[in-house]
Amino acid sequence: MTFKKLALIGVASSLAFGNAFAEESTGSASTSTTSTKKALGNKVKGDLDQEITNAKMRAESGSKSKFSGSISASYSGGSLKDPLSPERPNLSGDPDVPTFSSGGGSTSLRYRINKNVSATAGVGFSFIQPFQDSDENAQANEFTITNPSVGISRYGKIGDFQTSTGFSVTLGTWEGWKDINAAGTDIDSSFGLSQAFTKALGDSGFTVGVSAGISVFNYSDSLEDNANAYSLGIFPYAEYQFSDTFVARTVFGYFNLRNKRRYDSTLKMVRSHEYQSIGLGIVASRDIWIYPNIQLIPDNLDIKNTNVGISATINMF
């Protein structure tokens, strides 16, 4: 697999941004009435924020408007010693994980069916080594539009838990999913399913939760190679909200599993190396979540064995 074809495989991203609707009155009765009708026409009944109070989950749920747009973006950099380095330490040791700095994300349109359920359609994007000199590396600062996808999600409360459920289908049109091995194998598509549960511990400011996700890959052939048939991740996490603006957050990346196409059983999985993610969530508004963070290996606390990153969730309209 070439340097370029690894660019987006393993690039994590998470996010969405949303602006609250603001009506501007000009003093004209007819103009004000028209603006009010437009505002009401882009709203749904009920208020999701009465069920979802977690800042990160609110932003990821998208704008509360009936029609809106979302942008998610992330940057995966080097170590704490050199955050803008062109190289990124491979904490997991997995050969499929890129060892260079990169960015990526997606932009999508959202239709909110009701206050809890919404559908999205969009495309991804990626760029390699965005802070490097393209004269030294021809692929540095290269921007690529990637695989289109559609999805549906539900956010709401079940008992004492704030929950999210999502399903997505991604079409493999991106160059990095083509000819991924010497046999010329393509990744034609993938299916993703995610589930998260979050619970606030009274008025203490502490929140605990767990998120899980599975991605199933469909290939152009049925070779028994080392490519992932599917990946499964289960991530417990904890948060502490210092204020309306800042949230400390840690994620336990101890259950990141993969099933390979060469395995004789769909239940056989290999476990990636454990890691810990620590970051500070910034709540810019109800619809904007920014998350600078670092990943480290708990049993090898060497500053060289760290990854830095930042993600953002932006909803519009």
Output the keywords.
317 residues, mainly beta, Porin, twelve-stranded antiparallel β-barrel, 2 helices, globular, disordered N terminus
* Major sheet: arrangement of strands: 1-2-3-4-5-6-7-8-9-12-13-14
Shape estimate: globular
Radius of gyration: 21 Å
Number of strands: 14
Biggest beta sheet summary = 12 strands, antiparallel, barrel
Q: What's the level 1 CATH class?
A: Mainly Beta
Uncertain segments of ≥5 residues (pLDDT<50)? 1-37
- Figure out the total of helices: 2
Overall tally of structural domains = 1
Q: Work out the strand percent.
A: over 45%
- CATH architectural label: Beta Barrel
Taken in chain order, the helices and strands follow as HHEEEEEEEEEEEEEE
How far apart are the first and last residues' alpha carbons, in Å?
40 Å
Averaging pLDDT over every residue, what do you get?
Answer: 84
The name of the CATH superfamily reads monomeric porin ompg
Helix percent band: under 10%
Classify the fold: give the CATH topology.
Porin
Topology:
Elements: H1 29-41, H2 55-60, E1 67-76, E2 102-112, E3 117-128, E4 142-158, E5 161-171, E6 187-200, E7 206-219, E8 228-241, E9 246-253, E10 255-260, E11 270-271, E12 275-285, E13 288-296, E14 306-316
Antiparallel strand pairs: 1-2, 1-14, 2-3, 3-4, 4-5, 5-6, 6-7, 7-8, 8-9, 8-10, 9-12, 10-11, 12-13, 13-14
